[in-house]
Design a protein that fits this description.
The structure is a single chain. The protein has a single domain, classed as Spore Coat Polysaccharide Biosynthesis Protein SpsA, Chain A. The protein is globular, with a radius of gyration of 18 Å. The longest helix has 21 residues. It contains 7 helices and 12 strands. The relative contact order is 0.18. Helices cover about 35% and strands about 20% of the residues.
Length: about 260
């Protein structure tokens, strides 16, 4: 399985890091040039940024649109790809996990990432290899930096975007219905901004391209409050119907020189 790397043209250091990492892991890759926030037409931005639970920053909308480009590529190529943001750090076991997953055809998406935040996943663990298992994700809205996506899953995500509009990329991954979404355990990826949480030395210095921009405001607060309430009710419903079969857990990432060695 190959990778699609989402990279801003100006983020040369991130691209070099990702190229070196994937070359070392012997993972073939294609670069998806990320949408630049500064180049979004103002009218387009105003139209597309109001679809979610709050107004999106220009950088958040650009990130969403960049993932949409990756989804369209998976659909067009009609084969699974590992979707990576350019600040994703991969475990050395990633190639063997991809090889094991290449023999699976009954998933839409497998999340490789953890962010030191609790996720709600099914208690049932599906063996993948001697060291790794898969668990169905009930709810997870904590990052979209590394996930393996099949064409079926890409079509579901793209259809959701077309129907509901733009949102944070991880929110779209979290909110799709009838989406066979699984978590690999232990996780095989973190973002560079999480290195301190896992006692890993950052390979390069990075700053978020998203959080540097202030959150935009809107006069229509009631509309956004209703959307947030609707989303929370949906999450609560998922938790209730899976109360006995699921658990809230912090998926571990062992790094390259600890427990997985």
């Amino acid at each position: 399985m190959n990778a699609l790397v989402i990279n801003l043209k100006s983020s040369i250091d991130r691209l070099e890091f990702q190229k070196n990492q994937l070359d070392t892991l012997n993972i073939d890759y294609t670069i998806i040039e990320a949408v630049e926030a500064s180049k979004l037409d103002e009218n387009f931005y105003q139209e597309k940024s109001m679809s979610w639970e709050r107004p999106l920053r220009r950088s958040e909308l650009a990130c969403c649109l960049s993932h949409v480009l990756a989804w369209k590529t998976v659909i067009k190529e009609d084969k699974p790809y590992l979707i990576l943001e350019d600040d994703a750090i991969l475990h050395k076991d990633t190639p063997s996990a991809l090889s094991a997953l290449s023999k699976k055809g009954n998933y839409d998406c497998v999340n490789f990432e953890t962010r030191n935040r609790k996720k709600i996943i099914n208690k049932t663990k599906i063996p993948l290899s001697e060291a790794y298992t898969l668990s169905k994700i009930i709810h997870n809205k904590s990052g979209a930096a590394a996930y393996l996506l099949w064409p079926s899953g890409a079509q579901i995500l793209y259809n959701y975007y077309k129907k509901n509009g733009a949102a944070l990329a991880d929110a779209i991954l979290a909110n799709c219905d009838h989406f066979k979404h699984f978590q690999i355990e232990p996780a095989l990826a973190i973002q560079i901004d999480c290195c301190a949480d896992y006692n890993i030395v950052p390979p390069i210095e990075t700053a978020s391209n998203i959080s540097q921009q202030p959150k935009p405001t809107s006069n229509n607060r009631l509309m956004f409050a209703f959307r947030r309430l609707k989303a929370q009710v949906k999450i609560l419903f998922k938790q209730l119907i899976t109360f006995f079969s699921s658990k809230r857990t912090n998926v571990p990432f062992y790094g390259n020189d600890t427990e997985n060695d």
